## 1
Amino acid sequence: MTLFNINRAKFEVDELSLETFHGTTREIATIILNEGFKIIPKEVTNDLGNGIYTFCPDDYGCWNPEENAKRYAKQYKRGKVIVLKVIIDTSSQITYIDLDDPVFMREWSKIREQLEHRANNIWKKYSTGSAKRRHNIDGILLELAIKRNMLSVSNPDFVVKCTYTSFIPKSMSNMPNGRELVVRNLEIITDVKEV
């Protein structure tokens, strides 16, 4: 599956790039702007696996990705909140996984069944982290599936999904309030600047 299997409107900056937004603190933003992003792989990771988490436009213009990045940072980061605009390459050689794609969902249900027990055992080994507190093993499952070459895309440049982010403390929902894009390959980032 390549990037152009989905509606081009999702990626509305131009034909070859996409604006995404990353919420963080002034201190971390300064490091990112000076040194670039760094991905530190973890066995127990966030819900969409390892990478740089950003908010991006959705199909229907329901959610403001820049505002979501700011709301995320206000809720989960300590210090002065900064939003970074992260431009990523979406040219034809870029590969990705759209976790909302119906074809992927059929593939995923089989993979989940095969890996769920292993992912849960990995989750049990760790004592901290937000995924641990919520008993969310999705990121672990995704990392296991990628590592074992079980997906139609063997090493995706990014992962994208409509998600729910708890902008209000301890709130939960099964209905999305944004679209997240997780950059897994730092080489697709073409520019980063403060909003």
Note: The helical segments are 26-35, 65-76, 102-125, 130-133, 138-147.
## 2
Amino acid sequence: MKALFELQAWLGHRSPESTQHYAKISPNTLTKAYDDAGYFARNIRTIEVLVDREAGASGAAGSGEPWQHYDFGYGYCTYTFFEQCPHRMACARCDFYTPKESGKAQLLEAKDDLQRMRAAIPLTDGNQRVRGLRRSAGSEPAGRGQPLRGWALGLSAA
């Protein structure tokens, strides 16, 4: 991205859009530049999501029943807009949180029609700080593209 702004200044354009138009930067080229710079590896992680297909088929999801269950490793979050949740650090006290050792979570895991998927979760500044502290303490593996549980997102069980 820095190169775009340097080129913009060099060409005397007022907006990066003008420079982008003349430089013919395609979305694929831009995505490759982000990937090459490691942006996605630093700022986005994947988390496993259990999708309850029965809740969708029966119409229960339409009436407010949870159908997505974000797996933290120690519990589940059913907040539909989890990736935008401002309270990701205090899940244990949240109404959307279900501990894995609870009967409700065990019933969920026993269902036959669960679909396991991965969701991309952007890391917040707080998540980044916690990840940095854990990495420097040696308690978090440094791996690119690996799915992470709640501890790696900076989520706390207490």
Note: Residues 75 and 99 are 4 Å apart (CA to CA).
## 3
Amino acid sequence: MADRAVPRAPSGRCVRAELTPPTGQLLVVRYDGEPAGCVGVRLLDPVTAELTRVFVHENRRGRGGAPLLVTAAEQAARGLGATRMILDTRGDLVEARALYARLGYTETERHNDDRYAEHWFRKDLTPGEGLGVNEVVR
């Protein structure tokens, strides 16, 4: 299983190939047929997934979409074999940091050298916890 992890791009930023199976996924949510948000998950090693590219379109914010996206990403990470999720975010994204805390993420020490990251989080993924991806998108 160790061969499933994809090394980070030399820049430390996520590249498109990292968000495709078998080592990652990019989930896109639609509202009335139009893209309304996305979230990415990628394996860093056989048990650690990284949450990345969490985005909800400005016109769709404040309606509960972000927690559903993160929950779907957690389920996707479990499907890839991950038992923990990590993420980083900028300091000015106060709402995002509050969301991660509400969803059970705890702030941790720095785990990468991303120049835009100012806060790092982690969550242990309990098998079977949370909604399934199909339940989230209904």
Note: The chain is about 20% helix and 30% strand.
## 4
Amino acid sequence: MSKQPNARPAAPRKREPQCSLPASDGEPDRAAGRSVRRLIRPKRGRSSLARQMPTPRLYTATIIYADGSLMIQAFHASVAHHHAQVVQRLRSRFGDDVVGIAELRCGFFPATPIAAAIVPPAVADMIREIERNCTTPSALAFAVDIEQRIEI
């Protein structure tokens, strides 16, 4: 069988969600000779709103910026539902020029050079604790900014 040059690949079939079928009470299906089973809905344990909102995570950002008269080394950590929220916080704190060079990460990595240089060990421990429990209501308000700025 030869392939046609402009033939489209077959569209992938949509997979139906798998649900368990409980044993029926025994109503036989007269046409097929088998018992009829009711399709039950799986238990999800969350409302539809909870499924739409991503879980909060700890995001960290490092900024190293230098021009002729200014040098900035900064570290930021905060809990957010989406990385765009962290970008907005960085924009309001450091300005539009600095946001483009910020390195944004999900999670805390204390071995990064800027974090090792300017984040004190006690603050690093606190950030690790928040990262482990970032779904608590108090963690949603968590934000840390550590900055070294040299102006000439």
Note: The beta strands are 28-29, 34-35, 57-66, 70-80, 103-106, 143-151.
